[in-house]
Amino acid sequence: MSAAWGPSEIPTTALLTDHYELTMVRAALRAGTANRRCVFELFARRLPGGRRYGVVGGVGRALRALRHFRFDEESLRFLMDSKVVDQAMADWLADFQFSGDIWGYPEGEIYFPGSPLVIVESTFGEAVVLETLLLSIYNHDSAIATAASRMTAMAGDRPIIEMGSRRTHELAAVAAARAAYIAGFSSTSNLEAGRRYGVPTRGTAAHAFTMLHADEREAFAAQIAELGEETTLLVDTYDVFEAVKIGVELTEGRLGAVRLDSGDLGLMATRVRELLDSLGATHTKIIVTSDLDEFTIAALAGAPVDGYGVGTALVTGSGHPSCEFVYKLVARAESDDLAAPMVAVAKKSVNKISVGGRKYALRRLSEDGTAQAEIIGLGVPPSGDSNDRPLLVQLVAAGETVGNESFEAMRQRHQRSRAELPLEALKMSRGEPVIETVFAGFGEGAVNPYQTKPSAGSPTTDAMGGATAGVNPQAGTAIS
Questions:
Q1: What is the 3-class SS of 338-390, one letter each residue?
Q2: 145, 152, 415, 449 - which has most CB atoms within 10 Å?
């Protein structure tokens, strides 16, 4: 996944977490419960903004961060000096190395409310300290991947370059470029994303380069001399049509592309296409930029545009920078005995319920391969037929990463998963998830307990909280 010459690694990711993760472990160590076997789950109760599907992003970054989740001397000194931990806790952290199992949806997969995106099986101490790290990566990268998927769906075969680095935090920009590439973007302007992850990078010149020179002819000649006739010329610094004529003249009709970054892009693209064709530059492409999102890309579907550049909307999740994922304890052993049976636990908090029990998931497909439902099994895998697709894969086994894969595998998975969805998934208007999530443990035909609008006859929130097989009511109200 990363380039052969990189990346450089940060010493540790252990402090990319919240204070209370460590105070919980500190108290659990004193109580003797830190080593109790537990199951935690990362999931979303809803899709943000009336979207019809979500895209899983950040799996590879999370696995990489887990490998570097170690408490070095500097980290421990800070925690001791700040009185976040005592000596016993510091000794425990000094030896920390995750030894459990992690299952999850692979990167690029589609998800829905209630999908068990990550399942962490380990001791309470080992699993709980990963909460903030996993949530911060998954919430960001999945938001970007979801926005990117909507944009590439609207763009069709036209490529999109990611160019939002200047609109977000410098390191978030690198992660955003990675997530966008997985969801179908063709390249990025961010060089660190190229170095760290191997995302293809692209770029030519900004308006400042044109303004540096006496006129567009001088600027374009300098750019063509260095970058070749296949370069892309930014033609809207002064007069679009005169700039197009100059670019075509300098390359004798062999100019690679022109870029439009302002004005009525649909109208300007049409007029520029007509001009290019009249000048014999029939192969010169038109790239458009300027505050594009999935809606403007959809509006440009009929315009003679060959590619897009997207920045602000992409790196901000197109208005939804977080997926609202949560990480909850869903099962624990009855005691510290390694042979103790597991019991499901769940929250009953108003509007913040959880469903207890270890989950399994498959996507139900029709005979023609169209997704029909997300089936979640509680405690046991749900039954499926010949073409239903299991969704969970093992990412970590006994502390060892086993889920690494190539970018190409992630990109292809995303294309296949999105292609399975009903056509309604491609509607950009607000709506409900395009398929239902069915929890097999809630009885015949029971739909997702997290859904916004329960269907007629489905249990209420309170009933669902109490209906979970094996739920310990006291534990359900105590987990925060």
A1: CCCCEEECCCCCCCCCCCCCCEEEEEEECCCCCEEEEEEEECCCCCCCCCCEE
A2: 145
pTM for the predicted model, two decimal places = 0.90
Q: Tokens representing 429?
A: 């208007």
Q: Give the mean pLDDT per block of 10 residues along the chain (480 residues).
A: 48 91 96 96 94 98 95 94 95 96 98 97 97 98 98 98 96 97 98 96 97 98 98 98 98 98 97 98 98 97 98 97 96 91 86 88 96 94 89 98 96 98 95 93 62 41 32 32
Question: For residue 1, how many other CB atoms are within 10 A of its CB?
Answer: 18
The upper half-sphere exposure of residue 128, i.e. CA atoms within 13 Å in the direction of its Cβ, equals 28
Under a CB-based contact definition with an 8 Å cutoff, are residues 109 and 413 in contact?
yes
Q: Quick one: three-class SS letters along the chain?
A: CCCCCCCCCCCCCCCCCCHHHHHHHHHHHHHCCCCCEEEEEEEECCCHHHCCCEECCCHHHHHHHHHCCCCCHHHHHHHHHCCCCCHHHHHHHHCCCCCCEEEECCCCCEECCCCCCEEEEEEHHHHHCCHHHHHHHHHHHHHHHHHHHHHHHHHCCCCEEECCHHHCCHHHHHHHHHHHHHCCCCEECCHHHHHHHCCCECCCCCHHHHHHCCCHHHHHHHHHHHHCCCCEEECCCCCHHHHHHHHHHHHCCCCCEEEECCCCHHHHHHHHHHHHHHCCCCCCEEEECCCCCHHHHHHCCCCCCCEEEECHHHHCHHHCCCCCEEEEEEEEECCCCCCCCEEECCCCCCCCCCCCCCEEEEEEECCCCCEEEEEEEECCCCCCCCCCEECCEEEEECCEECCCCCHHHHHHHHHHHHHHCCHHHHCCCCCCCCCEEEEHHHCCCCECCCCCCCCCCCCCHHHHHHHCCCCCHHHHHHCC
Distance CA 252, CA 100 (A): 64
Q: Phi/psi at 24 (nearest 5 deg)?
A: -65, -45
- Give dist(CA 155, CA 308) in Å, integer: 8
Do the beta carbons of residue 312 and residue 176 sit within 8 Å? Answer: no
> Side chain identity at 352, as an amino acid letter?
K
| Amino acid letter for position 99 | S
Give the integer Cα–Cα distance in Å for 281 and 275: 9
19-31 and 87-94 are packed helices; what angle lies between their axes, rounded to 10 degrees?
Answer: 100
Architecture of the domain made up of 19-129+324-478:
Alpha-Beta Barrel (3.20)
Residue 250 CA to residue 27 CA, distance in Å, equals: 73
Q: What are the structural domain ranges in the chain?
A: 19-129+324-478, 145-319
